[in-house]
Amino acid sequence: MSGHADLTEGDRRQIAAHGMSEEEILRQIATFRNPPPPARLLRPATSGDGIVRLDPARYPGLLARWEIAAADGRLRKFVPASGASTRMFEDLQGTGEGRERTKKFFEAVGRFPFHDALAAACRARGLALQPAVATGAFDEILSVIFSPPPAGLGYGSLPKALVPFHHGPGGARTPFEEHLDEAIETVRDVRGVCRVHFTVAPECRNAFKAALLSMAPPLEAVSGADLEVTFSSQDPSTDTVAADEENRPFRQEDGSLLFRPGGHGALLPNLEATRGDLVFVKNIDNVQPRSRSAETILWKKLLAGLLVETLETLGDPGRPVRVCGVVRNEGEPGGGPFWVAGADGASSLQIVESSQVDHADPRQEAIWRSSTHFNPVDLVCALREPDGTPYQLARFVDPATVFISKKSKDGRVLKALERPGLWNGAMAGWHTVFVEVPIETFTPVKTVFDLLRPEHQPG
Predict the structure, then answer these.
(1) Across the strands, what pairs with 251?
(2) Which of 127, 143, 158 is the last residue of a domain?
(3) Distance CA 430, CA 268 (A)
(4) CA 365, CA 157: separation in Å to the nearest integer?
(5) What is the Cβ-side half-sphere exposure of residue 358, based on CA atoms within 13 angstroms?
(6) Environment class of residue 318 by beta-carbon count within 10 Å: exposed (0-12), middle (13-18) or buried (19+)?
(7) Contact at 8 Å (CB) between 417 and 240?
(8) Does residue 227 register a pLDDT over 90?
(9) Which residues on adjacent β-strands are paired with residue 76?
(10) What gap in Å lies between CA 254 and CA 169, rounded to an integer?
(11) Residues 294-324: pLDDT tens digits?
(12) What is the pLDDT of residues 390-399, one digit of tens each?
């Protein structure tokens, strides 16, 4: 069956309403039918072979470059923050092993930064938190945690950025606030302006704006900074169409096409739209309390200084440049730095995810397992040509790095297509520098229990 025969007039109207082209949908359907080959790993990037280890003697020069770039207003920060807290709290739901984890959660409930908010929400229901914990009334308390406001805290669906992560001198602090605090230390210009951009889910934008109204004045008063915070959302035109098991467009019960978000690679237009010069990129859940962030702030400055130095060395690179911090691999799930062979046979440094690798190939699997470093998503990117013209970032995407996975919808299997990842294939054509950074700078929060780690507790 030809691609055009797969689409009806109703489909074409739906595609146009989604801001997409018929050609793009046909290309996606063709990708399901003929998936691109996996990445061809040559070897892991290691210290001295693709990964730079900075000599402390270089610190002063790099910090001086960072300071000039910051003062000139060249720096800003970009934080993908659209994720909900659902997965963070999923260990507290269910039976069996989940029940054991729930018990452990309540044994430590006083150590979580949202303890006071939870106690207050319980009181509003006529429930005393500690006596309820002592009697094992876990389901009642979990109802308070997951029920939407005003009946509960809404932590099952609240953006992860707005869940309290840390104890602070003025009360609990969210990762949203901690990222603003980090930005004040790393991107403030000579006039005190700090430019920070968050990508958020459209339905959560008002919640972010309300949080900003309450937290920005105290941060600005203490620091003397002027926070210039902007928001954007993933454009529906970056969604991808789903396919059924026969690689035909997946049809919903009413016969319409099913579109799905295209993964974090769909945020590439958002990054370009900032029209930034030198831009930090960091995940929302990788952040430290202010009392423990000195090492991280130092390394953000060093990475930015190294990016400026790299630009000086390259002159006109003809493509965007990124400096990526990588940490020693200690078993965290995710991608890492590798030397990869391109379609033309040329080798380049890339961040590679497990989904890009042919694990059935013993040689590729051996290379994958021999990786020494991990990608914590700690980047600083140069997005402009030497004359100041912004790069057209779509030109440097490797379309072969898409990812196809199996999902379900209404009890039926479907195939989902993710665009090349933001720091993987979407940046495949960039000039890349990998730098080893201390493991202390990487403190992700994937589950609520990560908040009990020492790096997230009061120093």
Answers:
(1) 257
(2) 158
(3) 13
(4) 37
(5) 13
(6) exposed
(7) yes
(8) yes
(9) 279
(10) 54
(11) 999 999 999 999 999 999 999 999 999 999 9
(12) 999 999 999 9
